[in-house]
Amino acid sequence: MDVFSTRAEFLDVNCYAVRAAGGSDCILIDSGYDCAPGLDRLLVKEGLEPRAIFLTHGHPDHILGLRNVLARWDVPVHLGDADRYRLDDPASTLNPQFAAMLAPLVQDWHAPEVIDVADAESFEFAGLTVTALAAPGHTEGSMLLRVTDGDEEIIFTGDVVFAGAIGRVDLPGGDAQAMRESLKAFATLPDVPIYPGHGPSSTVGRELASNPFF
To answer: What angle do CA 134, 139, 157 make, to 5 degrees?
Structure first.
């Protein structure tokens, strides 16, 4: 597999494109504000055509680019079912401080159609298999996205696990006990590369060995 990334300007969100070996189709992971121009340059450069979008969770910094991305590429959007409500009024799903920051970004927001994703559900796009694992704690509908191409696997962790840290649990919908259970489940995963929603990539093994939250 090949993983390409660009960063959205609002809260420095990683937005990814993934293709199978030798492929020209790809899937997109997360859609930060405003990632569309960077994605467009990236995909043109690499000769890639998106076939689906997968959202790791429904926080505004990971979804507000959808409007412009979908205007450019009309592809299905997938989101953990417990986070679907967050698309209706993104600013209202965070604390007042964040809501004030978001106000100018959501003035023309309209919730897109999405496909609800359940725990352990799998999808086939662009020669890849995407399996979503429920990982609540940061939000109710946070997902770990296991992407495989034959025997090769990578995991997109969203804001569940970062390199050296984990996602915060003090925002509306956060749950410290649920996060503890999600981290226990993460610790059972194979030692493969992980690609978080913010910051650098890592591996499962590296985080289990050095991340202070494990």
So the answer is: 55
Rounded to an integer, what distance in angstroms lies between the CA atom of residue 100 and that of residue 4?
32
Question: Are the C-beta atoms of 193 and 201 separated by less than 8 Å?
Answer: yes
Summarised one tens digit per residue, pLDDT across range 36-57 is 899 999 999 999 999 999 999 9
Please report, in angstroms and rounded to a whole number, the separation of the first and last CA atoms in the chain.
28
- 77 token code pair: 């959007």
> 52: which 2 tokens?
């689906």
- pTM as predicted: 0.95
The DSSP result for 28-76, as a single string, is EE---TT-HHHHHHHHHHHT-EEEEEE-S---HHHHTTHHHHHHH----
Tokens 């226990």, residue? Answer: 184
Condensed to tens digits (0 to 9), the pLDDT of residues 121-180 reads: 999 999 999 999 999 999 999 999 999 999 999 999 999 999 999 999 999 999 999 999
**Domains of the chain, residue spans:** 2-210
Class of domain 2-210 as given by CATH: alpha beta
Structure confidence by residue, pLDDT tens digits, 90-100: 888 887 777 77
Under 8 Å CB-to-CB from 91, ≥6 apart: which residues? Answer: 60, 98, 99, 102, 103, 106
